[in-house]
Amino acid sequence: xxxxxxxxxxxxxxxxxxxxxxxxxxxxxxxxxxxxxxxxxxxxxxxxxxxxxxxxxxxxxxxxxxxxxxxxxxxxxxxxxxxxxxxxxxxxxxxxxxxxxxxxxxxxxxxxxxxxxxxxxxxxxxxxxxxxxxxxxxxxxxxxxxxxxxxxxxxxxxxxxxxxxxxxxxxxxxxxxxxxxxxxxxxxxxxxxxxxxxxxxxxxxxxxxxxxxxxxxxxxxxxxxxxxxxxxxxxxxxxxxxxxxxxxxxxxxxxxxxxxxxxxxxxxxxxxxxxxxxxxxxxxxxxxxxxxx
Amino acid sequence: xxxxxxxxxxxxxxxxxxxxxxxxxxxxxxxxxxxxxxxxxxxxxxxxxxxxxxxxxxxxxxxxxxxxxxxxxxxxxxxxxxxxxxxxxxxxxxxxxxxxxxxxxxxxxxxxxxxxxxxxxxxxxxxxxxxxxxxxxxxxxxxxxxxxxxxxxxxxxxxxxxxxxxxxxxxxxxxxxxxxxxxxxxxxxxxxxxxxxxxxxxxxxxxxxxxxxxxxxxxxxxxxxxxxxxxxxxxxxxxxxxxxxxxxxxxxxxxxxxxxxxxxxxxxxxxxxxxxxxxxxxxxxxxxxxxxxxxxxxxxxxxxxxxxxxxxxxxxxxxxxxxxxxxxxxxxxxxx
Amino acid sequence: xxxxxxxxxxxxxxxxxxxxxxxxxxxxxxxxxxxxxxxxxxxxxxxxxxxxxxxxxxxxxxxxxxxxxxxxxxxxxxxxxxxxxxxxxxxxxxxxxxxxxxxxxxxxxxxxxxxxxxxxxxxxxxxxxxxxxxxxxxxxxxxxxxxxxxxxxxxxxxxxxxxxxxxxxxxxxxxxxxxxxxxxxxxxxxxxxxxxxxxxxxxxxxxxxxxxxxxxxxxxxxxxxxxxxxxxxxxxxxxxxxxxxxxxxxxxxxxxxxxxxxxxxxxxxxxxxxxxxxxxxxxxxxxxxxxxxxxxxx
Lengths: 293, 336, 298
Fold this sequence. Notes:
heterotrimer; B: 336 residues; mainly alpha; MetI-like fold; 2 domains; 0% strand; disordered C terminus; C: 298 residues; alpha/beta; Rossmann fold; eight-stranded mixed sheet; 12 helices; 12 strands; 35% helix
């Protein structure tokens, strides 16, 4: 800076060094870390859980948290600390698997509806509406009854095939916009088939707009599993999951065993919160611009 | 564009509505009968196990269960059109009667809950938008996100644990204390916990939507114009921005009816609240076919109706939505 | 009889606007392209040029009229299905806007290789990648571009990639739908030269669509002038430029800027009055190969 500038009162303005955005900036770090801990803990729970989660220690039923049973035991004398990690595996697996099922259905259905002529599109959308109008809980009960006794796969399936409609609607709208873009026309001109166009040209271009919903679908599936198991229509007590652990809560309520209700529930809620934060991060943020008000 | 007669439009919508309900009834009828399980159990209870083959046969015939499904469906439809929806296997009375007694309870829970959500969401959304990115907004957003993440059944459990078991302030189940069915304050006391859950469970979703819609609106060019004319923040927000988002809010609230109603199903079950929710849960689990049909059709009709209302509101906001597809314009000349 | 690669007869295409209104984008259009020829189709925007291209490529089903490609009636869906694979490989389309005709989520190598993958064609040069590299080279880009995404390239480069994709099928007919309209003027010249060079090398035919005559003058053997969905004049390029017959063509010619400032200043724009244009004229051959729309004036 020349002295003369200083003399007339022009101050030097530091050249703004273009900071390279670090990969983690603006990302929900805490949520990602907590979720990672929970995920890894559940995956590798065999390495550190102190008790056999399925072993019923009837002498120590309904024990409050203490040095031996960190989170207490449930009404059947099982160690809650071990059950949480072990059962988390099942809950998270159902969350992911059900989401995979519903996303695949949603993409296929949405793409067919989006690429179809108007009358077929209308018909498909009406059918979706009818499907949606059956109360979700009833539909799940009926489907579960058709599939027979609930197990991990059947419950994922039931949750999956009842949870695809909202994603399908978004996919349809996106596909309807994309199908007139020239690269899709070009691909059709080259003779590409339905699945090739869907997989190579459409999916990569709409995936970002459904990512948020897909993540929220994981959350929804975990909630559904726990709710169904709690109501006694989901997983039975022998299959340990966060939901089936909570299904004991009505019995424990009267005996004042709060830990049976609170501890698995807190794990559940923290997991859901982390997933929600990550999902919200994926949603396009509209408020980046300056407010005019 | 030639304007169409609006009555034809409404007629078409009513037709679509009726058709959808018809398809719905077919689907539910088939799905319900596909599910294994013995509907006789819910009618005869434990006696079924002691029945001989002949008795079973007679019982099934009595309830009209051994015809092919489509014959059963047509018979059901014929009766239903006459207003006769059959009897409930479990309660052994006309299903209309069974539902009638419970409907009020659910309508109180869901209806009042809906109004509360509607008003509170609007207020909370405006509050957040007003204080955008200030501490109040941030606090409400954080708390709202956390609460919206909590599954409703678990929130119910925790509140029961605190308010019914530890503090003994509020009752934990039912719609009224035994023998006090007409006692209004007692009923209100029973409503507090379930109602809180209904509201808490949905409130943030809609409040956040209002907040974001308002923030989007505030960034529109016309706000700058209004500001340059000298209008203050309050009147811009309330007289211009709010007015612009109200139609889409109404449309979304119309779609929300089934969600809120569906949410009450689980809450009713947790609180053993004698409403439609507990009833449909029972009917689906114990193959009470006639009851299940009517419940599904009732709630289905509400959902479809709400969708149509929401669609109609949308069409009024944006006429382009009437033609669900914008005409592809590539190379169009004015040659007629 | 000439050796025709494309014979368009009375092609009409209309778009429905509302239930009882249609718009005729192309109206009773007939023209022929001979093997190894570059045929230019010129018209202002909205005159139906792209619609012609899309009808020729079977993207739109013509409302009426027939299109023969190598003697096959491609406007007949049955015939089209029968020869689908041959038609989809030997005719290739190049779009106006390369930014939207190349999928932004695919790498250049995958874009060029896509038609080969679709038709399971064994590449002449071993692998798909080698073929892509070769084709990229032939349009003047080196192999470092193979790993790039379209968004990282300039408009001219993208158009080259689009041309390379078309070339990889060794087409007999290239339909270029305003391939240079969205490019800078200096790049336009490069792409035009590329077309000329490639045509000389491969000997394919080109249906070249443009909205101004100056481009066509340099590149094409014959030119058709389109006005409001109707062909008004078809002639060999030289003849069209030396003795235009239709008033609309004259008006278009007078709009070409001249690179000499003194003559440019003296240039007189000839206005064309749309009111003079009648829709029901006849094409009349005024000299060999030179057809003009006559009559039908209101």
